[in-house]
UniProtKB/TrEMBL annotation:
One of its GO terms (cellular component) is cytosol. GO terms for molecular function: mRNA 3'-UTR AU-rich region binding; NADPH binding; quinone reductase (NADPH) activity. This is NADPH2:quinone reductase. Keywords: NADP, Oxidoreductase.
């Protein structure tokens, strides 16, 4: 993970400083910090900046990261609303990037040192400092900026597993893939990665984001009317299934990647090819309603509802995905757009911006 030279330095310091146990590698940290905290679930204003929230403690096997950026993702809004329950109070966010500020003995033995540039995905990133297990760290290579690296961790890694693994190899290079909402952060990544994997891509987007989406490499782009104040398009403004069948010569798509949810479930299932797979990973328009499994019989279709944690189950898998994503970034194969940044003091405004569908790329807090 880190260089052999770094490991040697860490080893020498360890032997020279036995009295400090697991806490010898650290810079001076304040006892409190700024953090965007949810004490009661609710709308965006339930996320409030606090200036004296306790700084997390360094734990065995972990590090403390001094955050430069924190990513804002739709799943954060689900936590804030209480749709996905968390113990209260909690610091928002689960995606961050910055520099290592404190290192446990166990992390130092892996070559991790104060000052290393890293990104990560753990709860509590809307803050100046976050405690991160060493196994969750992604070393950021030279040539990749921290804001881009932070953007990669949830959306980039999610896009990677969606186009690389969640379809269970039911789509092959040269076959058609439908991706909804390619104007949004995750599916901007997914559309580009699907092309890297060799799939033919149909993307849906709002007319207001068509300019951004034209640069993603989609073979066919279906631009839809906007739904003001939402993060999704008007999926009834044209017959998408008919257009998909025209583009694919009546075959349909071997995989449909759908983060929209309630508004697109019928479109997604009806756009499938025989033995195709409906990959439902998000709820931007609301949760997918229950439907009878018999509905899949017409095309012997498959359906899956995956999540990122089940596709980064160990260190090897995590690094395989991140190394591919960072490699594509360095090679110029991925065009990552950071749409805008908000200061942490504007925590609520960041969520409101994302939920209103205004973003044309990644949205970050600058810590």
């Amino acid at each position: 993970m880190f260089s052999l030279a770094s490991r040697r330095v860490a080893s020498n310091v360890t032997k020279a400083s036995p009295a400090f146990a697991s806490f010898r590698f650290m810079s001076s940290l304040p006892s409190t910090m700024r953090a965007a905290v949810v004490r009661e679930t609710g709308d965006a204003h339930a996320l409030k900046l606090e200036h004296d929230f306790p700084t997390p403690e360094l734990k065995a096997g972990g590090v403390i990261v001094k955050n430069k950026y924190a990513g804002i993702n739709f799943i954060d809004t689900y936590h804030r609303k209480g749709l996905y329950a968390r113990d209260l109070p909690f610091v928002g966010g689960q995606e961050g990037g910055g520099e290592v500020a404190a290192v446990s003995e166990e992390a130092a033995a892996q070559g991790i040192k104060v000052g290393d540039r890293v990104a990560y995905s753990v709860f509590g990133s809307y803050a100046e400092y976050t405690a991160v297990p060493a196994a969750k760290l992604l070393p950021v290579p030279d040539g990749v900026d921290i804001d881009v690296a932070t953007s990669c961790v949830v959306q980039g890694m999610t896009a990677h597993y969606l186009v690389s693994s969640a379809h269970a190899d039911l789509i092959k290079p040269g076959e058609w893939c439908l991706i909804h909402g390619v104007g949004g952060g995750t599916c901007q990544w997914a559309a580009q990665m699907a092309k890297i994997r060799g799939y033919k891509v149909i993307g849906t987007c709002s007319k207001g984001k068509e300019d951004v989406c034209k640069n993603l490499g989609c073979d066919e782009l279906i631009a839809l009317d906007e739904v003001p104040g939402t993060a999704y398009e008007d999926y009834e403004s044209m017959d998408i299934v008919q257009r998909v069948m025209e583009v694919t010569n009546g075959e349909g798509c071997k995989a449909v990647i759908d983060g929209i949810g309630k508004s697109t479930v019928d479109i997604s299932i009806n756009s499938l090819a025989h033995r195709g797979i409906f990959v439902s990973f998000g709820n931007a328009s609301g949760a997918v309603p229950a439907f009878p499994v018999l509905r899949l019989i017409g095309k012997s279709a498959y359906v899956t509802r995956p999540k990122l944690l089940d596709y980064t189950t160990n260190r090897e898998e995590l690094l395989w995905r991140s190394n591919e994503v960072f490699g594509w970034l360095k090679e110029g194969k991925l065009n990552v757009k950071v749409d805008t940044t908000f200061p942490l003091e504007q925590a609520a405004e960041g969520h409101l911006y994302l939920e209103a569908g205004k973003s044309k790329g990644k949205v970050l807090y600058e810590i």
